[in-house]
Amino acid sequence: MLKGKNALVTGSTSGIGLGIAEGLAAQGVNLVLNGFGDAKEIETLRAGLATKFGVKVLYDGADMSKADQIEAMMHKAEKDLGGIDILVNNAGIQHVAPVDEFPVNKWDAIIAINMSSTFHTTRCALAYMKKQGWGRIINIASAHALVASPFKSAYVAAKHGVMGFTKTVALEVAEKGITVNAICPGYVLTPLVEKQIPDTAKARGITEEQVKRDVLLAAQPTKKFVTVEELAGTTIFLCSDAAASITGTNISVEGGWTAH
Within the chain, where are the H helices? Predict the structure, then answer.
């Protein structure tokens, strides 16, 4: 059903985004990868996905904090692939600090990359989706789009914003064959999460092992990290015909976190 469609996944050179990109490629979806990293490693990744799954895989290094670079990426993707059928907004960064000590530049960067980039990709993708009468926009939000945690004011604010944006766009395109949903993961042991563990340990005055056990997994009743494969599977489901009537909502993949 998805074979031959085109997807752009932001923040897809590692972690959740890469897992979702691999899952889509396995379904026969052509890809545009986006993210930072070593140029040779990214080229190896790009070529490897194309060869393994027999799909077209492009890469664009657009900085997701820059509106003009995002717009250029979207236009180039449409030119090179013919259009984007599936948009997965996944790019994100994190910084952990008390709000009165939160660096202003970190706040601005998190809002830009975690929230505003979703607006910029979506506004550029919709014309093609409307013309085709089909589209899937999937915003990788977070359990923090639904609940808060201390010391993450910018991240929580951005993810709540993504959830509100998801609902709004879903209403606007509900009659166009386009669905817009958010996936709200709990903690996945990605480079982003691993990077915030030392900062959280410092902010709370505890060890890094205690952060994993008593802070991260304390919120998840399953006491297990969510896997990228689970998130890829959820994405594929939301792209399927079975999910055609699911729009403007969130699917929580967080081990029961928000059931508290």
Answer: 15-26, 39-53, 67-81, 104-110, 117-132, 153-172, 191-204, 208-210, 228-239
Strand partners, 9: 33, 88
Tens digit of pLDDT for each residue in 59-107?
Answer: 999 999 999 999 999 999 999 999 999 999 999 999 999 999 999 999 9
Query: Does 59 participate in catalysis according to the annotation?
Result: no
229: closest CA among 26, 11, 6, 8? 26
Q: Catalytic pick from 59, 128, 155, 187?
A: 155
Name the residue among 12, 158, 13 with its Cα closest to residue 87: 12
In 3D, which of 62, 59, 79, 58 has the Cα closest to residue 70? 62
Q: What domains are defined for the chain?
A: 6-187+226-255 (3.40.50.720)
